[in-house]
Amino acid sequence: MMPNHFPFAHDNKSVAFCCRIRDAMVRFCGVDEATADRMMRDYWGDVADVADDPLFFGEPAYYYAMCVAHHPTIGDNDPEWYRRPELWPPPSGWTT
To answer: In whole angstroms, how large is the CA radius of gyration of the chain?
Structure first.
């Protein structure tokens, strides 16, 4: 299995998707990898395994990156980030 910084991801598919979320946070939210990892651990801290959620892989990684980065307590408290045209819809290449 690939290196895993995410205690809530237990298989390669989940870890790879979480890495993609982290990459989006680094690229579009201006945080470093360690900060993104910490924020994601806080966001999914009460989840045993993200793969158990049948909807988890249904949204693009970019969407989750924005949810974490703009979370009211974990991020910058901009929960209506999706109303900002510069943030939504996702940039080209980040819609899956």
So the answer is: 13
pLDDT by position in tens, the chain (length 96): 556 789 999 999 999 999 999 999 999 999 999 999 999 999 999 999 999 999 999 999 999 999 999 999 999 999 999 999 999 999 999 998
Helices (H), 30-82: 33-43, 61-69
What span, in angstroms and rounded, lies between the C-alpha atoms of 69 and 78?
Answer: 8
This prediction's pTM: 0.94
Q: For every residue of the chain, which 3-state class applies, written as one string?
A: CCCCCCCCCCCHHHHHHHHHHHHHHHHHHCCCHHHHHHHHHHHCCCCCCHHHCCCHHHCCHHHHHHHHHCCCCCCCCCCCHHHCCCCCCCCCCCCC
Element (H, E) at 88: none
